[in-house]
Design goal:
The protein is mainly β. It is 10% helix and 48% strand. It has 2 helices and 24 strands. Strands 1, 2, 4, 6, 8, 10, 12, 14, 15, 17, 19, 22 and 24 form a 13-stranded parallel beta sheet that branches. About 5% of the residues have low confidence.
């Protein structure tokens, strides 16, 4: 009987240990970071972590990392579906030729919201989408990425990209989209791309890149405002402004690519419209276009 009692007691102790250990090892659906936090903390609201990297390992898939206060919370590689919300424009500093955020996980869905991503003049890529299903940026400011062939946002595989209420300034290229296989579907809504050195928005490579730009501004860029650099570029621009770009404002630069324009203002650029052989720039007739060098659109379409 004593042996049985001892066995039962041992089993009970084991079960108790598992119950106690379980919550300690569990990941939270919502975690927190703070400028005065510590990555040794559990990342709770009352005991926040110091960095996004410290918090993500303690955050469950499809969870949320929130910032309690404005601050710099470090760069991050994201390999699972997650939302990062900086609250009052908390941010990350990516200098010395590194990236701010890397998204690199099969099928992941990532939302970055209320963030400032600073390149400090030497950063490489603000947000780099290497692998995943979708990336959404809401109220994000990306600036100062000028190291090497730096870009504000780069997407090099098929998937969905949404930029909303986002500013990209002072980068070599604002948004670069390219794919060789699965298509990209991108929407830019109320986005400002300004003061880039090369391209405001560029599509490239042989795959299909479908872009809708609306209610946006692509102004004051030293190079080209919007360019299709591959045969699969398919860009529609509606109710937007493309002005004061030193190079060409809208350039369909590769045979087979197409740019559609409706209700836009295109003025005071080095060249308003560029069209390569075999490419198309289509207008619905409602655009306001003025400048010294005027190449007329070579096609029309009906905007319904």
């Amino acid at each position: 009987m004593n042996q049985i009692n001892r066995l039962l007691a041992a089993l009970a102790a084991g079960v108790t240990a598992l119950v106690v250990a379980g919550p300690a090892m569990a990941q939270a659906t919502r975690t927190w970071v703070s400028g005065v936090g510590d990555d040794a903390n559990p990342c709770s609201r009352t005991a926040p972590c110091k960095t996004f990297a410290g918090a993500i390992s303690k955050t469950a898939t499809d969870g949320i990392i929130n910032a309690l206060d404005p601050g710099g919370f470090g760069t991050l590689t994201i390999t699972k579906s997650i939302t990062i919300d900086g609250g009052n424009m908390s941010g990350t500093l990516a200098s010395g030729g590194i990236n701010g955020f890397n998204v690199n996980g099969a099928g992941v869905k990532v939302i970055l919201r209320n963030l400032a991503v600073e390149g400090a003049g030497t950063g490489a890529i603000g947000v780099n989408f290497i692998q995943g299903a979708s990336l959404t940026l809401e109220n994000v400011r990306i600036y100062g990425f000028r190291g090497g062939s730096a870009m504000g946002v780069r997407m090099t595989v098929g998937g969905q990209l949404t930029l909303k209420d986002t500013n990209i300034t002072d980068c070599l290229t604002g948004v670069h989209l390219e794919t060789g296989a699965s298509p990209i579907f991108a929407t830019l809504d109320n986005v400002r791309i300004e003061n880039t050195a090369n391209f405001g928005l560029q599509t490239a490579n042989i795959g299909q890149v479908n872009v809708m730009v609306k209610h946006s501004v692509v102004n004051n860029n030293a190079g080209v405002g919007i360019q299709t650099s591959g045969p699969g570029g398919n860009v529609t621009v509606v109710d937007s402004s493309m002005s004061f770009n030193t190079g060409t404002s809208v350039n369909a630069a590769f045979s087979g690519s197409i740019i559609r324009l409706a209700s836009n203002t295109i003025v005071n650029n080095g060249n308003a419209i560029g069209i390569a052989a075999g490419a198309t720039v289509a207008s619905d007739g409602t655009n306001r276009i003025a400048g010294i060098f005027l190449t007329a659109p070579n096609a029309a379409f009906t905007n319904q």
